[in-house]
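re: ur question from earlier - yeah i can do the single chain one, its not a big deal. heres the input i used so u can compare w yours
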Amino acid sequence: MFKRIKEKFKHRSGSKVLEEILKSPLHTSSKRKGIVKVGCLVNLDEFDKTKVFNKLLEEFSLRPNALKIIGYKSFYDTNSPYATPVFSDKDLGWKGEIENSYVLEFLSREYDLLINYYTEENLIINLMSVKTKARIRVGFKQVDTRLNDIIIDNPLVDFKTFKTELKKYLTVLNEIKK
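and the output i got, formated as tokens:
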């Protein structure tokens, strides 16, 4: 019982931190133009085909190490190997801190583009998104619009259309060449 109360307080504390962060401008990268580094924040409970993000490397003419993917699972077994680094609700600490080595590594980098590939509202994923240093954020219309600069209205499972739309927007913004 004490554990549930503790988790409830952590969630409430994280919600307050998220609202405070959203009141001010989000972290941005120090770079000016061009897409060189891409971060992908994926809800693996909704979409588990993370290998499709590798298509962005050739689509945007990026280096092989330019793409960093991290996934969220509502529950994961620490003994099971996952192809994608994973975090979950149990990694939420006090004051919105996320206590996971994969998360700390992901957050320590700067990205030109952060892809928020999820449609279900979730506190820990939203906290990850706002704490990531990224110049441009892309996501879906079902999520809080304050989290993303570019909002795409597309089914989550249709990655091909998402990639096409994203390329169109980034070309118009002169972030990538045709």
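DSSP finds five helices and six strands in the chain. not sure if urs matches, ping me
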